[in-house]
Structure formats: C-alpha cells, structure tokens
Amino acid sequence: MIAVDSLRKVYRTPREIVAVDDVSFALEDGEIFGILGRSGAGKSTLLRCLNLLERPTSGTITVDGVDLLSLGEADLRAARRRIGTVFQHGNLLSSRTAAENIAFGLEIAGIPARRRAERVAELLDLVGLGDRGDSHPSQLSGGQQQRVGIARALATDPAVLLCDEATSALDPATTEQILDLVADINARTGVTVVLITHEAEVVRRICHSAALMEAGRFVESGTMLRLVGDPESRLAEILLPTGNPDRTIPGRHLTLAFADERAVDPILSRLTRDLGVEISILGGTLERVAGHQVGRLRVAHDSRDGVTDDDVVDYLRAAGVTVTAA
C-alpha cells in the first residue's frame, strides 16, 4: 500500500540541517501506523514529505505501486487526492460552514454539486455531525472541528489518511473520542492511517504498528505485539512502563512480557508454588494494545532449595512469557 525507502530531507540554511535521515518503512492496506517522538524529532517534516508538501531531498515514496516522486504536476495532483491529511488545529476555513469545508476538496476536484452534497452528507453522518453541517467553525467545539477536519480529509476517498498531531490540542476525553473515531473509520473503510504524536496513549490506544523517531531517524519500529513482547524495547518501555529499577531489592531482576491469555494467567503464583521461589513485583503495566491484552512486569526473585536462576527463567519461558535480565 505505502512504502517509503531511504527517505531523507535536508534543509540548507547557513548550515545543513538533516530533518529526516534515511527513513524506511512499509505498511499494509488498512494498517494504523503511529510515529512517536519528541518535538524536533522530525515527525512533522516526515509527514509533510509523505504528501509532498515538502519535497524530499532523496529516497522514494510509493503509494498503490506509484512512485510519487516520479510524477509530473498533473499526475501528482491526482495522486494527492488519494492522500488525506488531518491537521493539528483543524485548519478549517472560518468563513465556510462545516459542510462547505468538507466540500472544498470536492469542488477543486470538479465533482458535480449534487454528488458533492451527497458525499458531504455521508461524511457528516460518518463523523457524528449529521445535524451540524450548517455550523461555522466558531460554533463548534475543538473536538467537533477536528471531526470536520477528518471528514474533509476523507472527502476524496483517500487510500491513506495522515494525522499530524491530530489530538494534541484536545482534552483527554475528547482525544479518546477522536482516536476511537479514527479507529472506527479505519475498520469501516479500510483506509491506511499514519499518525504522528508525542503522546504514548495515542499510539497505545489504536495503532497496529509503531516507530520511535529521534533526530530524524527511526530508532525502532515494528508491530505493536512484537514491540511490547520485547522486554528490551525502548518503545515498549514508553508505551508500557515497568518503572525504574530499584537495585536495593535483593534477588535476580527480570523483565517479563506477555500477551492475550497469558496476561490473565496466574503464572507467577504457579511459579511460586511449583518451584518454591519468592517473587517481588517491582513495577509494570497491563493494557489493551492493538486489540490484545498485553503486559510488562519488572520482578525480582529469590531462588532457594537448589532452584537456579536458569530454572526460573526456563519455567517462565515454557509458560509463554518472554524473559530478559532487567
């Protein structure tokens, strides 16, 4: 569906600034991909390269088998209709109603008025604003404005939806509503979603896969289940923190990762009973991620009566838990 290979964006001012540095990834149809990073990591520049609001210095961007960077202006305008963008602050036209904002891209595309009206009505219903089409942005809440922005981005039936910090200006309850709306639209339409954020909760709540971006590079990426199942993953520690290790607690320290039925299986209780070891839980998180119940724990155990550290690790791994030294 969308493939990015060796993408690089360099700004040449009095000095050279590398904003995106050799980024590559490939997404399947219908995937929700989150890019997590701090301010200045290069996330927004990367997103602007994906819809060619910024021209990359080098690399390739392929959508539906078409290399966007190889297209002429006319073909590129047509290809861009297959990429919708939701902006951080909505970026709605204040002089237009919600319906007119949604219709704007359809007007530019030359869609007849009757079909425009039908499509706008469909989209207003889709985002839960069927009765607010005649409202201007000033008459809508921040969450409602963002819903209009989402509807506008979907107007031309894009294959890819880009979300640029789409919830960062919203309160927590509204953020959850918007994220759930994006997930619902993804499930109903199959649109592939790329979202950038500095908030772990955004990625944790709806993403199927994710990347951690620092200094213009992806330092880690993969499916959510693979990431949270890796006790050594930095991204997993951000999404499901186990807390800072307290080395004053005696015993061997381990980090455990588990998913689905193992998340509710009393494995540690059985371990204590079967091997006679004592387990201290030092920290951890249990959450629902990408439709799966997953967890990460930092524990310490005190082996005794001839039971070795390896015995404990082998027991846990046989039970389906991923284990590494903390």
Automatic annotation (TrEMBL):
GO terms for biological process: amino acid transport. Keywords: Amino-acid transport, ATP-binding, Cell membrane, Membrane, Nucleotide-binding, Translocase, Transport. It comes from Mobilicoccus pelagius NBRC 104925. It holds the Pfam family ABC_tran. PANTHER family: AMINO ACID IMPORT ATP-BINDING PROTEIN, METHIONINE IMPORT ATP-BINDING PROTEIN METN. SUPFAM superfamilies: ACT-like (SSF55021), P-loop containing nucleoside triphosphate hydrolases (SSF52540). InterPro entries: AAA+_ATPase (IPR003593), ABC_transporter-like_ATP-bd (IPR003439), ABC_transporter-like_CS (IPR017871), ACT-like_dom_sf (IPR045865), MetN_ABC (IPR041701), MetN_ABC_transporter-like (IPR050086), NIL_domain (IPR018449), P-loop_NTPase (IPR027417). Residues 2-240 form the ABC transporter domain. This is Putative ABC transporter ATP-binding protein. Homodimer. Forms a membrane-associated complex with FtsX. The keyword Endoplasmic reticulum does not apply. GO terms for molecular function: ATP binding; ATP hydrolysis activity.
